[in-house]
Amino acid sequence: SKDIEHLSRPPLFDFHGVSMIHCFTDxxxxxxKFQARPxxxxxxxxxxxxxxxxxxxxDLLHFGQTSPDRQTSLPIYERVPFLESDFHILPPGxxxxxxxxxxxxxxxxxxPVQFVPKSFWEQNCRVVYVxxxxxxxxxxxxxxxxxxxxxxxxxxxxxxxxxxxxxxxxFGPWNDHxxxxxEKKQTNSNIHxxxxxxxxxxxRRELDKLCSFLGLSxxxxxxxxxxxxxxxxxxxxxxxxxxxxxxxxxFKISPFMRKGKVGDxxxxxxxxxxxxxxxxxxxxxxxxxxxxxxxx
Length: 296
Ligand code: A3P
Hints:
cytoplasm, catecholamine metabolism, 43% helix
């Protein structure tokens, strides 16, 4: 429809050194002056690292018991506003966040660490950062860009991968994002840095760590309920979290809940692509201590 035409296949442009598209910069002034509250929880990720999974986990941990209606009546993107988004088909993320009446507010962002509104740091907000290995992250991003016309044209896989390596992705290079947040975490104990691969390997263990970071102590029964409800198959079939209510996404091309696996990159990378990627990765990740697993 006409509503979504202006969103269609937006061009990438350089925004303070980071590739962006207009729907994440149009509302920039309001984003930068956004007033965080001390109990806000920021969920920060590079796109396709497991944002929705962790958002739903946090939502259930905080509101699963007290507001069961919330789970059946509000899609996840209204429960957990996407801070920098300004898609016009929804109110901008800053407005959605301001309208939230529940506490704590859960707020999602894909911003690289240097772009986070300063009030989140001033208020000492807790941040849950989720990172995913570069190869699977690239594959997931490729399929997302194919099915979502609000993202730039992906081109073919080889083309896309080259662009991923060049850092010409919405929200910039993967490596700058994961290492920028990793460095920030070294001096800020309010940042809980998680890995998608760890979540897949042992969701319960990661759930326990998350609860201890958040200062929550749910019963065993409740934790099991959260783990069960947020399993891939259950989220895939849950219209309130699977994005089936979003007009710009074409699930016939690829569903939002696509595979949910570690190692799907092996079905996409040729041997030559993988070698070239590894070579490039070594150079870019030379000066950081953050370590990723591409298999579990
Ligand atoms: P794939 O495309 O590899 O399947 P985001 O929410 O940051 O956009 O990330 C989306 C990715 O997380 C997709 O990866 C999606 O399938 C995966 N995902 C979402 N929910 C999941 C879950 N409960 N368990 C495992 N993976 C999940």
